[in-house]
Amino acid sequence: MTSLEALVALNLLPKIGPVRIRRLLDRFASPEAALAASRDELLRIDGIGEETAGILLNWQDHADPAAELREVQERGLSIVRLEDPAYPPALREAYDAPLFLYVWGKLEERDRHAIGVVGTRRITTYGRNVTKKLSFELAHAGFTIVSGLARGVDTVAHEAALAAGGRTVAVIGSGLAKLFPAENLALAEKIADGHGAVVSEFPLHTSPDKQTFPQRNRIVAAWSRALLVTECPAWSGSLITANLASEYGRPVFAVPGPINAPTSTGCNRLIREGATLVTDGADILDDLGELPFARQPSLPFAENNAVPELPPEEASVFAALGDQESGVDRLIDATGLPSQVVTATLMKLEMRRLVRALPGFRYVKR
């Protein structure tokens, strides 16, 4: 058995998380040695009781690492271990960092310059607009946007990063063979196709549940240089992520909302408790200091009702809008472009101030 197979086997075992695995590796010379340890040796380790020791002693009843690695290869995925150069340095420093990540796509050195963007799944028009604006600005400035691929804020943050021509990393709360939510498969494919990566610490066929999402949130918090919460209610997983970010020593930024809007109660409370109030991407860039890369050329904006020369996809969507407000579905039919391309293109046109977003995913020329 190779070291990687033994590590994958440990990760496949039930009721043994990254903290216990790390204790095992601190005690034994290798993951292979941990799997070969005796009951007495295992019980001497803090956090390893009779039940856990029994699972480790009979690990072959629970795990087939060779099959897992074979499927990783068949799916075109990779495994990035804690000691690999591609592993995010900030995440590596966390006491509960995953021993390895399953990666769909490719991690690059610049992904260490990351900002986490999180918020509610039940996004409002206000939340959509601020998430889109801030994520676009941060990605355009050179930061990788890290989020969770969930509905709502996460989806908008990933799409805005793609529209800005930037990079984005989706950390999911399930295995890569059980991607959730299924409706974001096309978005995940676009991210993995040269624009970032979709990553998970969970075995390939792990289904999402109430435990996997908080575990996912700690990766988003630890990976990022800072965390931005754009919209969330009083009780939200985003607040857990914000608390984790504070524990890891990351600055937390939050977008204020109307005091009578339940969807902004969580953000307003974060600001009251010390998070930095944000209304523009420049607020975050100024606090973080130097940009990771030279700022990309700005998109030309429409001025004095003049329409700048547009790339083919943008020109096609802009022309399809006509003079009436249109839904995304109609624009997809009119242009023949994939849904993700139309969504990203509409975002670019918004940033150029050529179109305006309306409630109900409808758009109109300005």
CATH architecture of the largest domain: 3-Layer(aba) Sandwich
CA radius of gyration: 22 Å
Specify the CATH class of the largest domain: Alpha Beta
Number of continuous helical runs: 17
Structural class: alpha/beta
Strand content: 5-15%
Kindly state the number of beta strands: 12
Structure description:
With 366 residues, this protein is of the alpha/beta class. The chain folds into 3 domains: 3-74, DNA polymerase, domain 1 (Orthogonal Bundle); 103-288, Rossmann fold (3-Layer(aba) Sandwich), CATH 3.40.50.450; 312-365, Orthogonal Bundle (Arc Repressor Mutant, subunit A), CATH 1.10.10. It contains 17 helices and 12 strands. It has helices spanning 3-12, 18-27, 31-35, 39-43, 50-57, 65-74, 89-92, 125-140, 153-163, 185-192, 212-223, 237-247, 265-272, 281-288, 312-321, 328-335, 339-351; strands at 78-81, 100-105, 114-118, 144-147, 168-171, 196-200, 226-229, 252-254, 276-277, 326-327, 355-358, 362-365. The strands form 2 sheets. The protein has a 9-stranded mixed sheet, with helices on both faces. A 3-stranded antiparallel sheet has the order 10-12-11. A hairpin with a 3-residue loop joins strand 11 and strand 12 (362-365). Helix 8 crosses helix 14. The chain is globular and about 75 Å long. The relative contact order is 0.10.
